[in-house]
């Protein structure tokens, strides 16, 4: 191979430095217990952007109006586009000033609460952003923060932290419960990691309850754990306190515990006089445990092949199927209904069949994506095309 060609291919150009972030104005109203200056500083740090300490500093910068609260994805969006000005009611809320003169104009307009004579994007026109981390495309919230609007802004912040593609229970059943608990935790200064720890205790307790055949108690404990599993993530995103170890603990528990639940659900059937014979026990566990592993491998293979894009966001069908695919929460719905009819044994058999069907659907989608790429097509999320 020609060395010069190799050098060209391996050349790495330095990324431009992240712009400074400056808070314009002041706001004494707290959001999730945080002053706006602290909230914006946390958003900037999480995005890897330095905070401007002196307005005299020359050069480009992102200005954030302290009179407005905004969803964190806006900062990355504005920072990537020099000259971008986002207004709410004509007043600039976020802007990327390209030089000191623009910064001065924008700063004055933000502090004085007036319009600016620069090209701008009106929030009211509904500009959209693809949020890859939360698997959705939307117009993230930007709202004036006052004592009268703080609850509405917290609500917008909370729902802005929700994944757009998730299971049916997380999306429709307990968002309101989790919102109340998130507010309480924020007021009491409870950290997301503490919520994760409390949930983990409930998760382990549910496992023992299933093993002893106490299915209703186990489902009650499991419900508490599943709601807290939503609360810890929302609290971290709303208070801008996400951490690497917190994510590892949260996702690690999510990944490890379901196989134990399904195994001990089966052993607990003996206390109901519904124990499986040996052959039934092993095919049910083989389908559920094997299917769980296969489904995760399919998801991982899809992400590896397609730039870390989740299989659940390829087409609308995939996002809709994620609502009911054989994951913990939809499986618990099946088991709940079966237990209502005093047949937890049939419920687990239904979970086994649904796991096999779900794996088959995902396997077909994985093969279809390979075929598209083999024919020269590209795999992109429907969210990025909206």
Provide structural commentary:
- This protein is α/β, with parallel strands linked by helices and 386 residues long.
- It folds into two domains: 20-131, Alpha-Beta Complex (Spore Coat Polysaccharide Biosynthesis Protein SpsA, Chain A); 161-385, CDP-alcohol phosphotransferase transmembrane (TM) domain (Four Helix Bundle (Hemerythrin (Met), subunit A)), CATH 1.20.120.
- It is 58% helix and 9% strand.
- It contains 15 helices and nine strands.
- The chain has helices spanning 3-10, 36-46, 73-79, 100-112, 150-160, 168-173, 175-188, 192-211, 215-238, 244-268, 278-305, 316-322, 328-340, 344-374, 382-385; strands spanning 20-24, 61-65, 68-70, 85-88, 91-97, 121-122, 129-131, 136-138, 142-144.
- α5 packs across α7 (175-188) and α11 runs parallel beside α14.
- The longest helix has 31 residues, at 344-374.
Q: What portion of residues belong to β-strands?
A: 5-15%
What structural category arises from helix and sheet content? alpha/beta
Number of helices: 15
Number of structurally distinct domains: 2
CATH architecture of the largest domain: Up-down Bundle
What is the CATH fold-level name of the largest domain? Four Helix Bundle (Hemerythrin (Met), subunit A)
- In the CATH scheme, the class of the largest domain would be Mainly Alpha
Q: If you compute it from the alpha carbons, what radius of gyration comes out, rounded to the nearest whole angstrom?
A: 25 Å
Question: What's this model, at a glance?
Answer:
This protein has helices spanning 3-10, 36-46, 73-79, 100-112, 150-160, 168-173, 175-188, 192-211, 215-238, 244-268, 278-305, 316-322, 328-340, 344-374, 382-385, and strands spanning 20-24, 61-65, 68-70, 85-88, 91-97, 121-122, 129-131, 136-138, 142-144. By secondary structure, it is of the alpha/beta class.
